[in-house]
Amino acid sequence: KMTQQMRDLQLVQARKPPGPSSPNAAKRLYRNLSGKFRVNYTSFDEGSLVGRGEKEKLRKSYLFQSNAALFEAVELQDLDRVQEMLKHYSPEELDLNTPNSEGLLPLDIAIMTNNAPIARALLQAGAKESPHFVSLESRSLHLSTLVREAEQRVNELMAQVVNEAPNADCSEKEKQLKAWEWRFRLYKRMKAGFEHARVPDAPSSVHLSVASSSSLQVTFWEPLSVNSAVVTKYKVEWSCSPSFSPLLGEAVIDKLKELHFTIQGLVSGTAYHVRVSAYNMKGWGPPQASTPPFAIPSNWREYDGRAPRRRGQAEALDHLLGQVKTVHQHCICHEPCKNQPQSRKHSVSKSLKHLFHPGSKFLKTLKRGLYLTAIFYKDDNILVTHEDQIPVVEIDDTYSCLLMQDFLWLTKVSCMWDEILWLRQCVTVSQSSCSCILQTRFKMLLAISQMQGLLGIQDLGQVFFEPIKDKQGNILIVTLKEVKTNQTFESVRWVPICKLQSSRKSVSSPEEPSALDMLLISVQDKLAYHQRSSHALSPGLYLGYLKLCSAVDQIRVLVPEQLPNILCHVKIRSNPNISREEWEWLQKTASVEEPVPTETDADRSQNPLFQELQVAIKELMTLVNIPLQEAKDFRLYSQEVLDFGDQVSFLLLLPPSDDVCTAPGQNNPYTPRSGFLTLPLQIFELGEKR
C-alpha cells in the first residue's frame, strides 16, 4: 500500500503546468525542498515502495522540484536563496547542468541578465553554459525565438481575458497572463544583456613562476572592467617564441575556484612564454602576457647536481634493521622472553597481592619511582581504568640513573611500538651486566609490554616532550594518542575529561601536587600540544628561524606553540620551488659574506625572490621579538633548501654564529613573545619526521 506522501508526489508530477510558473513559485518550491518535501522524501519505508520503478519515479520527482526551485531563484535574482541551495544540495541533486524546457541552464540566465554575484556562485559550484549555444548567432536566434514566443503567448492570453466574461476560468487565465508577462520581460532583459555585452578585457595580471624542473605555474586575476559580461572560463597558452608562433600548447580552465594553472611536461632549461585570455558569452578577449615575460623550468639542485637528502633513506634504514634482526636470529636473545621481576625482594609479596586482585594491574597511586602512563583520547573523552584512573604502570621503583638520556631513548623506541618484544629479547642478553642504563631500559621495555597487554593495543602514540616530576620523587613519562574510530580496549572505558578532573580526589596538597595531579591539571594542554604537533603546513616556501639553547644534558630548539613540529617561520610564497636562477642569486649573496640583503641594493630589487625575502624577514623578526636592525648580522643558510616532501620547502635564517646556541647562564637580550616553547632537539627531530 502506498503512503499518502507518495500519492501527493505523483499528483504534483502529474499536474505539471504547461506554461511557466509564477514568480512566487520559487518561494513555495524552496520551502518544500527545505521542509516538508525533503522530510517526506527521506521518510519512506523501502518496503512500502512497489518496486524500482516507483523509487526511480520518486527520485525524478525530487530532482525536478529542486531543479525548478533553483531556476526560479536565479530568475528572481535571489542571491541568498541561490547560495543557500548550493550549500545544502549537491550539483547532482540540483541537476545543475541539465537544460530546462527552454534550452537554458541556470548559469545562462545569470550571465545574460548580467547578475555577476549569482553567476560567480554558480561557477564556484561547477555550473556550465548550455552546449546548445555553439556560436553567437545561435544564441541570438534562440533568445529572439524565446522573446517572440513569449510575446505571442501574452497576446493570446490577453485577448482571451478581454473577450471572456468573468468566471473561474478567466481568473486562471489572468494568473497565466501575469506569469507570461513576467517571463516576457525576463527574456527581453536577457536578450538586451546579450546584445549590449562585449568580449572581456584581458586578465588584470598574469604571474609566471617556476614550479619544478619540468613545470611552470601560472596565476592570473580577473579583468578589471565591470561593464562586460561575466567571465566563464580562461585559456592559458604557451610557446617558446615571444610571438607565440608556433603555439606549443593551450589549456582551457572552466573550474574557477582558484585562478591558477600548472603547465606540466616541459623541458628543463628551455624558456617558455605564457599568456592568458578570458572568455564570456561574446567570445574570447585579448590575451595578457605574463610577468615575467618568460620562465625557465629548473630546480635549485641543478646548480651543483645534488641529489635529494632523503632519497633512499627509508629503504636503507629498513635494510639495516633487517640486517640487525638477522644477526640476532640465532642468538640466545631470540629465545622467548619471560617477564622478569623488577626487584627480587618484592617478587613474593607482589605475586601474592595479584592473586587477590586479578582484575587490573594498573597503579592507583605513585610511591617514589619512574612510571609510564598512556593517554588515549577521542573528542572530549579520555580512556580510564574501571577505578576512574588514567592507566599507569611502574617502570622502576629504585630509579637512580640520569633521566634525560633514557627518556630520549624511549622516544626513539616509540617509533617502533610493534617491535617491543624483539627489543626485549635483544636487551635480555645484557642482563648479566651491571649497567644501570641497560637495566633501566630493559625495565622500560617491560613496562611498555605490560601497558600494551593491559590495553590490548600495540601503538601507545607519541611521547610527550618532557616527563612530569613532583617533589615526592615521582617521574611520570606520558604517551598521547588520538583515537579517531570507535575502538574497544581491555580493562578501560571512556570518560569525559571534565568529569574526570572534577571527580578525582587529590591525595596531595596544592603546594606540592603529585605527578598524577599535575597530569590531570595539565591534560588538556598536553592534548592540545599533541593535536598541534600533527598539523601540516600548507604548500609553499617558508623562511625558518633556527635558535638553540643548551643545558647540561641536552640542546633545545625554539618552536611555535601552534606548530611545535616546525621551526619558527613565516610564509614567503605559495610556490615551494626554488629555481636554479634564484639559487644562483642566493649563492652570490653568500659568497661576498654580506648579511641579509638590504633595501638599498638597487640591482637586486628587481629580483622577485629578493622582494619576497624582504617582507618575510621583517615579519619573522617581529614574530620572534628581535629588532629589525639586528637582522643585518643574520645570514641565510646557503648550503641547501630544506625540502619536506614535494609541497613544502624552507630557507633558514641564522643568527650570528656566536648566538645560534645560547649556552647555560648566557643572557639572551631578545626574549620571544608568548606563544613559543623550547623542545629537546631529539624530540623535535622525531616530531618533524612524523
TrEMBL record:
Residues covered by the Fibronectin type-III domain: 202-299
Cellular component GO terms held in the UniProt record: spindle
Protein name: ANKF1 protein
InterPro entries per the UniProt record, alphabetical: ANKFN1, Ankyrin_rpt-contain_sf, FN3_dom, FN3_sf, Ig-like_fold
Pfam families the record matches: fn3
GO biological process, one term: establishment of mitotic spindle orientation
Gene3D superfamilies reported in the protein's UniProt record: Ankyrin repeat-containing domain, Immunoglobulins
Gene name linked to the record: Ankfn1_0
Source organism per UniProt: Leucopsar rothschildi (Bali myna)
PROSITE patterns: FN3
Region (Disordered) location: 1-25
